[in-house]
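Tokenised fold entry reproduced for everyone:
>
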Amino acid sequence: MPILESLRQVESEMFDDHHPLALEPLAMREAYAIGYTMLACVNGYPSEIVKKQLKREIIALGLPSKFRKTAIEIAINADPDVIYQILAMIVEPRYKYIFMLDLYEYAFQDQKVTEQEQEFLLLFERLLQLSAEDLHFVRGFRLAMLKKDAELASKVVQEAVSCGLTIPFQELHYFLKSFEYWKHEAPKETEVAPTYRSKVR
């Protein structure tokens, strides 16, 4: 196997297959998985193909594969209390952006969105209390994902940063592999040792 191909394979195994939130608190990841599963179930009980996709998402989140069954049962019978619990976990802007991009990626995977999926997405955008700037970023990056356009993604990110949003640069690479997140991260400030001057007597 060529050296570069081997390196790419290791890179993929180390980074690409792991969800950006795989190391977050367990309760948060479970709530996230249930919210994601709700979208998968919004058109009815999930098919075997959908179940396999849910299993991949759940494993990527660092959860046991058997949690899929629990997530489906909760999602299918989701009441307002379940939704409030999900919202209570997805509070950080970073969580919100990643969650919505994950939902959009699922909904648009076959290039068409059902009315139920569209309403689900719009309702969660409102429930997560995303601002106009947040929505512009999420929807813009979602478009870049659909087009697989890294240049558009960079433009969307730059606009979001100029609006004062805190963007999870590295995590975005999970959704668009061609997005070179390291070009957008601000360089870390280096500490400058203080200089001391002797007092002139």
